[in-house]
Specification:
46% helix, single chain, Rossmann fold, 14% strand, disordered C terminus, MCP/YpsA-like, alpha/beta, seven-stranded parallel beta sheet, globular, 15 strands, 463 residues
């Protein structure tokens, strides 16, 4: 099938019609320090909405002739799209939701580059990271003061089975009937289903200002193009700030079946909840899936028990095949969150009290050296092991779908992970299960392992 392309000029939205010449030059700068490459990649992801490709490289190769240019006009600036995917247009006009997403990309790339770096002078590194996330969310108008907690974060895979996708819609529907808004990673699969279900429920309840918040980052957005239901798209600068944005902005988390990326998110959250400082903070954390998908959570639950211990298992609850039960439990938990925040004077719109250790905020670059140096041993606090395991899975995600990770694998071979034998055995079982359940990629037939697990005695296994 021949790809169809469209050339079009798009006018900015709101204040973006007043970009400075410096900002325009920065967006057009193709040098190492310029923003052109990121702008092109993120814009293409937005325009490629509905794609079933989950490899950044494949998307960029398919649309290698795509270009985006910015020109000054007498009324402001204008985006010129060259060889853009035709699916983003109707009768030659860019779909309005995609248009909004396109300018969200411009807004966030410019703000990260030019404004937030000096917002937190004098703060220690952890507080600085938290304040940076706050400034980015505030700039995107994502913070809504004085509104009772109602934003449920939904995590889960982009390459899930059809019955799992239908289940995510049912859960979203039940959440929406109870007035809850939805925040996801903005892509397809378990990131789209809850929004779709909630949208129907919100329409029935005549909720006209419903929120469907999608939070992404440049490294993953091309592999997980924003779904069209998202009405607030936010591009964070890296995966760590993306994860912090979820837990600072959201009031509870529902986890659907997924793959390595979903397991990474689970470990991130456990690395927070296991901290003593967070022991009295209510934070709903629910795992759920339809009948027939129990294997995913059984595998994850066993892995957590074997590596982090029973205390970690007490940080979440598992509800199978019960959308109504999930929504009722979420509503009850949000009442606890609201009462706690009122009692402690905490803001409804941003969870300042939640302590996130620096190990979960530092940007992890998944190089071969960094992956091999991870401390995958139980001879450390459980929350620190959770952070190390999170990095290991983040590296595997990068090797699967992110362009720099794919290039590193091609050049140097699979990432190699070292660790305590029992931890490595548990990790082997977890990853092998994901392969068997076809959860690594949408086109699972094309999956090639990007890692291998090293054994102390010298033998190695690759999943």
């Amino acid at each position: 099938m021949t790809e169809a392309f469209v050339n079009a000029s798009v006018k900015p939205l709101d204040s973006l019609d007043m970009l400075s010449p410096y900002e325009v030059a920065k967006l057009q700068d193709k040098s190492q320090g310029g923003l052109y490459r990121l702008l092109r990649q993120c814009a293409l992801a937005v325009l490629n909405c509905g794609s079933e490709l989950d490899s950044t490289r494949t998307v960029l190769e398919r649309y290698r002739t795509f270009d985006i240019q910015i020109s000054h006009k007498h009324r402001g600036v204008q985006l010129n799209l060259i060889n853009a995917p035709a699916s983003a247009f109707v009768d030659g006009e860019l779909i309005q939701g995609i248009r909004e997403h396109l300018f969200s990309v411009v807004r966030d790339l410019l703000y990260v580059e030019d404004e937030f770096s000096s917002c937190c002078d004098g703060l220690e590194p952890s507080a600085m990271a938290t304040n940076v996330v706050f400034h980015l969310l505030r700039h995107a108008n994502a913070l809504q003061p004085h509104v009772k907690p109602n934003l449920m974060v939904c995590w889960g895979g982009h390459s899930i089975a059809r019955h799992e996708y239908e289940y995510t819609k049912k859960v979203g529907y039940e959440l929406g009937l109870r007035g809850m808004n939805i925040c996801t990673g903005c892509g397809p699969g378990a990131m789209k289903g809850p929004m779709k279900g909630a949208a129907i429920a919100h329409a029935k309840q005549r909720i006209n200002a419903a929120r469907y918040v999608g939070i992404s980052e440049p490294g993953i957005i091309a592999a997980e193009s924003p779904n069209p239901i998202v009405n607030e798209l936010i591009i964070m600068p890296d995966i760590e700030k993306r994860l912090e944005a979820f837990v600072r902005l959201g009031h509870g988390i529902v986890v659907f079946p997924g793959g390595v990326g979903t397991a990474e998110e689970i470990l991130y959250m456990l690395g927070i909840l296991l901290r003593e400082e967070n022991g009295k903070l209510p934070f709903p954390f629910i795992f759920t899936g339809p009948a027939g998908s129990e294997a995913y959570f059984e595998t994850v639950d066993r892995f957590i028990a074997e590596t982090l211990g029973e205390r970690a298992r007490g940080m979440y609850e598992i509800i199978i095949d019960d959308p109504h039960g999930v929504a009722v439990r979420a509503r009850e938990s949000l009442k606890e969150v609201t009462a706690h925040r009122r009692a402690t004077g905490e803001a409804f719109h941003y969870n300042w009290q939640l302590h996130i250790p620096r190990a979960l905020q530092q940007t992890f670059e998944p190089t071969h050296a960094n992956m091999a140096a991870l401390n995958l041993s139980r001879n450390q606090p459980d929350y620190e092991l959770a952070a190390q395991l999170r990095c290991a899975l983040s590296g595997i995600v990068a090797g699967n779908v992110k362009e720099p990770g794919i290039q590193a694998i091609e050049q140097y071979g699979p990432f190699e992970l070292h660790g305590e034998p029992s931890v490595m055995q548990s990790l082997d079982r977890l990853l092998s299960s994901f392969v068997e359940q076809r959860r690594m990629k949408i086109n699972h037939e094309d999956y090639r392992p990007c890692f291998r697990l090293a054994r102390p005695e010298g033998s190695q296994t690759g999943t």
